[in-house]
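Example S7 (structure tokens).
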């Protein structure tokens, strides 16, 4: 884990309220599923760093995909190339890389796209199911549809792109003929994660979920990101954000 001053290379809107930020960075290593805590200004506003899943890191360039949801991310969206942000990371535990013979399915919904896309681009195999509200909420379409070795299925709430369906419902169809061993990776809204976990479990597939929680410190000291698991309360930032779905006590 490093706390780095990173110069922004680009920070562009890629769909409604969603930005792709690229910054020069110097990580020694990282894993898909890890995240960073971004400090946007030296001033007290916004006060806390923002947790953002890593979309990609290669050739000393960090990519973050983020949605404007409040003052912090709005401030970040106004940053221009050449400006500096402070990036603490990589943080947390990433996804388990599947064995060569494991069948892989990914499920991403809403703001859960970055870690899943990072993993799909890294593994380069499997079926990627993405759920969005509507076409204008769907970022990086061309990039997603051209990932080598990965078949992409997009669904929307209104049918403006792909079938009108929920990502977890499509999962049931995708894995009905799947063979074991297999693994499902998911990130997105809690209801989607819970349904994905139950469907995977019923089929006998392993399932890892990346949880999203409000975070203050990002490295385990404030206990502000607790999730209930079968091994007791755990910190999303430290023991997660990736957990075995079977370990989570779903509400
Ligand atoms: S954010 Fe502080 S312990 Fe997780």
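Recovered sequence:
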């Amino acid at each position: 884990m490093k706390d780095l001053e990173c110069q922004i290379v680009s920070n562009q809107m890629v769909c409604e309220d969603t930005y792709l930020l690229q910054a020069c960075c110097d990580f020694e290593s990282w894993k898909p599923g890890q995240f960073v805590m971004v400090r946007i200004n030296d001033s007290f506003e916004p006060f806390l760093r923002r947790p953002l899943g890593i979309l990609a890191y290669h050739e000393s360039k960090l990519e973050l995909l983020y949605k404007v949801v409040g003052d912090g991310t709005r401030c970040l969206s106004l940053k221009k190339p050449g400006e500096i942000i402070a990036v603490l990371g990589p943080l947390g535990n990433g996804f388990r890389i599947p064995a060569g013979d494991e069948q892989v399915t990914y499920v991403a919904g809403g703001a859960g796209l970055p870690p899943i896309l990072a993993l799909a681009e890294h593994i380069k195999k499997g079926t990627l199911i993405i759920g969005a509200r509507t076409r204008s909420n769907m970022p990086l379409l061309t990039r997603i549809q051209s990932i080598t070795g990965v078949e992409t299925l997009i669904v929307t709430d209104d049918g403006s792109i792909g079938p009108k369906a929920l990502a977890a419902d499509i999962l049931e169809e995708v894995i009905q003929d799947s063979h074991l061993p297999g693994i499902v990776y998911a990130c997105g809204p809690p209801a989607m994660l819970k349904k994905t976990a139950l469907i995977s479990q019923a089929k006998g597939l392993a399932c890892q979920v990346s949880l999203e929680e409000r975070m203050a410190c990002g490295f385990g000291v404030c206990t502000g990101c607790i999730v209930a698991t079968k091994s007791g309360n755990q910190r999303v930032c430290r023991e997660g954000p990736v957990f075995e779905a079977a370990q989570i006590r779903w509400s």
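Notes on this example. DSSP finds five helices and 14 strands in the chain.
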